[in-house]
Structures are given as C-alpha cells and as structure tokens.
Amino acid sequence: MGLKKGAKEKGKALEEYEEASGGKSSFLASPWILFVQSTDSNIKPGKINLVHIEDIQHPDEKREKEHKKRKKRRDRRNAFTRFRKHMVRYWLCYAILIIVLLAIGLPVLFLKIIPALAQRIIDDTDLPIYSATLKALTNDSVLIGLKTALDVPLGLTVGLDPVELWLYNADSEGFNPYTMVRLDKQKVKGHTEISVEDNTVGVGDRDELDKWLTGMLNNKEAEISVKGNTTAHLGELHFGVNLKKTVKVKALNRLDGFGLVSARIKIPPAEDGSNLLGDMILPNWSDLTIGLGNLTFSVWAGQLLIGQVSAFDVLLPPGNSTLPFRGQVFLETFLRNLPAVIGSQAASLGSGKIELSLNGNSTVVNGNHIGYLEKVLNAASFTSQVPLLQLLSDMMQSIASGDTDLGGLLDLIGEGLDSLLNGLRGGNSTSDSGGGAFSDILKGLNETWFGDGNSKRDLREIVIAKLKR
C-alpha cells in the first residue's frame, strides 16, 4: 500500500523513515521504504512515496488479492444480471408454477392443517364438571343440567355451534349412548365457564345406563364420557370438530354414612297403615344434585324381612341430607320370629346396637315407577346400626307424644316374650336361625332372673308388671 506525500511533506516523511530505521540504511529496519522514481503506474514519477515493505517483497500476492476482489464484484453483478434476464425470459412459467402450488397448498392448508390445529385445541381442553343436576322424571326421560368450562389458548376466540353431547360408557364395546345433553351456541375465549340449563332428555340404552348408575352408586369415583360433533368458527374460517371427553367425578361411595336417626313406633297404626315414623340420613358424596322421587326401602334383620320405610320427594344435594320417613314394621312377623331376629344381631348386640339392612324396593315419580333406578337400588344393600339406647328413647318419646298406646305396646311385648319362650323351649317359631345361637343365653337369663320353676306365663306377667310400674 502506498501513501503519496506532497512537497511540503517530504521532510516529514524522511524524518519518519529515519526514526523507523534507527538511523540505519537497511531496508529491514522498518516496514516502510521511500521511492523517488517508480515505473508503477500508480506512483507518479518525481514524487516521494511511502510504501509498505510487504508491497515490495510480495507484489504477486497483492495483485492476486485485488484480482479476486474484482472478480467477486464482477461475478455478483453478472449473477444478478443473469437472474434478471432469466426471470424476464421465463416469468410466465414461474407464474403458472406459483398458481399451481397455491391451488394445491391452500386447500391443504385450509382443509387439513388448520382444521387439525382446531381439533387439537379442542382435544387439549379439559371439560371439568363443577356441578350437575340429575332428576328422574319418567321411566323414559330424565332431567339433566350441568356447569362446566372450556379452555382455548390466550388470544384465540373460538365459536362453537349448538351441539348434542351424547353420554356413553367409554369402556364398553361400541358406541351405545344412554342419554345426552344439549350444549347451546358458545363463544370460547381463554377460560370460559359454560352453564347447561336443565334439559329434559330421553333415556337411551338401558343396559349402559344401568352400568353407569351402578358404578356411580357403588364407587368413590365414576367416569362420564361425552361425544359430539359441531362446527368451530375461528374468525371467518369454519371447521368441523369432534368433541370427545372422559372426565372423572366423585360418586356416591355406597351411601357410606347412611343411617336411621330416629324411629318411633305408632300404635295403633295411622290410616295409611304406617306404624313406624322417623328420620334417616342419606349422604351424597358426589357433586351432583340427584332427584329420586319417592323411595321405598325394604328393612331386613339378618335374612328376615321385618318392614318397609318410605321417603318422599327425595332430592339429594351434595352432602348429608336428613329426610323424614314413614313405614311399617311387620309386627306379627317380627314377633313370631323374635328368636331369629335376636340371633341375627349376635355381633352388633355386643356393642349395644341393632344392625338393620335396607335395599331398594320401589322408586316412583308422579305415580310412575322409574325402572332404571329400581333395577340399581333393588340390587344394592345398605347397612345401618341403631343404638339400643336410642331405640328405647324413641319408644319413650312415642309413648309420651301419644303416638303409641301403652296397653297396645304391652300386649306386643307379651307376644314377643311368648315367642322368646317358645324359641327357648324349642317351640314352633317360623325360623330356627336364632334358636341355636341364643337358646342357651335365654335359658340362662330365665334361670338367673326367675328361677327354674317359672313358666313362660310367669315370665310374661313379671315383665309386664315391671313395665307398668
């Protein structure tokens, strides 16, 4: 590289050269040298020029570098020129190619890619059930309502046309819905809560409904699967999407906590034949509000049917519900089989309780039997342990309130004692299930309290006399 110096700068250039060379004349003392004359076309004759020593020692390399730079600039200009000429020459071919690609790509984009993205958004969203209502109306219809939510990515607004969501069991073979709910037109943006107003809908596949209701009654958790097709709107774009979800909900857990709060005997019976009044607790462990209509349960002591109780207009919100009931104790059956009844209570009497089992008998709404509920409840069994002290207290309350006539009660007690003594002596009790287990106990009590010579009449008279006091 050379730097030209004017006449006024000659002295300064010489001084710089001398300083760089250390006062020596060797070319190797400095990377800079002076030329006074030169045949190089870039250096004017008669001028003092300061030139880098590498330019003198390697002139070919410098020329080669400059040649490559000029060639690159020339190649770039030539390439652009060739490209421009090529496009001018073949522009129609490229225009046709672009049109063909758009004709193929745009349908793929709008008919495949974007709908697949919209379906993925629907698939990724949850469908939580915050609350729901399920009420039996007739043997062929049910009322359903629920609160749920849909989520889409922030920044997107998705419109959904009305859709029928079919409820089915995902673990069953095939697609056999047991009912459905109607979802109105929705506009989903971010997290959007959705309320489905109470719908009266028909009952579909009975076997599938029985399967779902049985799982809902007996388990702590149950699944609800829904499926439906609708149209999603993303701006001006419209796509068909499939809504298919399975969500888990809390179930009834076999009505754990069910029990009789109170029970009062009514003697003589009421006009409808009821001789048992009281209150029961029906727990609802789920998030559903369940309407069951008029429920009638059969009451069992061991293997002996001893009565029925009915609760009316049953509506169970989540949590425990205390419901009044009325019913019948089959006193004649109960007293005739008192030894069997006592025999069935061997385990619970030790802890001061009586154990009763209940199962569904009938479910009626507006005079119509609800077969899909009766099938499930009749196959289920619920156990309640009632403290003996509570029963005695309830009996005293019945007497005090006038529900029970003391004379009638004493007659019943007398008949019961007759049955006990018959069982003790191997009499003709209808059931022998209690005789073997408790005959020795009863015999011991008889001997301890009243002596060996007391007849069953003596025992009855003594107990009645004590109660009259």
TrEMBL record:
InterPro entries reported for this sequence: DUF3712, Tag1
Segments for region (Disordered): 1-23
UniProt keyword Lyase, yes or no: no
Record keywords: Membrane, Transmembrane, Transmembrane helix
Parts of the chain that traverse the membrane: 91-111
Composition bias, Basic and acidic residues: 1-15
Positions in coiled-coil regions: none
Signal peptide: none
UniProt-recorded name of the protein: AsmA domain-containing protein
The species this protein was found in: Bionectria ochroleuca (Gliocladium roseum)
